[in-house]
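Q: Could you fold this chain for me?
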Amino acid sequence: MTATRLRFESASVRVGGFQLSTGSVDPAPGRVTVLLGLNGSGKTTALRAAAGLVRPASGRITLDGMDVHAAPVASRAARIALVPQRTEVGVPFTVREVVALGRVALPTDLARVDAALAAVGLSGLASRPFATLSGGQQQRVGVARALAQHSPGGVLLLDEAFAAVDLPETAALVAVVRRVAGEGATVLAAVHDLSLAGALADDAWCLRDGATVAFGTAAEVLTPSSLRALLGIEVRSIPGIAGRPVLAADYGTTLGGRPA
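A: Sure. Below is the predicted structure, expressed as structure tokens.
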């Protein structure tokens, strides 16, 4: 598969009383774009709209120039995989059966299911009932399901996919996501953890109150001053490997300026 181009073309998305106005945003294939903003800023809405689950009231979201909502379901499933905030399963499926659901609109490929389980470190739990797993393990199953669906060069959407995952497993998932991007995927990942954002991001998209306030390279966007303005908290940054900053919320400085 050649690399898929995902574009937000001044899309206006309304969900209930909330409205997201994306402006022009063009996540690049082969790179991880981190999506940042406070709760209610529109991150989940943006990801769901990109997956074709919410239709813009105006503007467009396109895949290679075609409106994402005009694509047949099987075609869309072959090019876009979404990891939601919570992986919910209402029937007593095993872990392997849940991961195999990633192929439900696509040809069966059990080898890809097994490879996805191995990628997230859950091969040994494949026969366990999904409902018996911890929250963090269930989230890793959700990532595996998306990996089983994903084809190289497609779009991978992650909505807080690392929440409740232990630190060693988070590091392993970061490596998986960066590998997928390196294979040509367009990765758009909503995160809250600033250290995770620094480790993941090639580019960053910042939302505030349903509007884009910044989109650009991580070096341009993920600065202490811009993050302070976006998140309302002091942020520290130190140089990391491969030019990636190590970011952290500075709660001590933030709280030090507030009355007890």
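A (continued): Residues 167-182 form the longest helix (16 residues).
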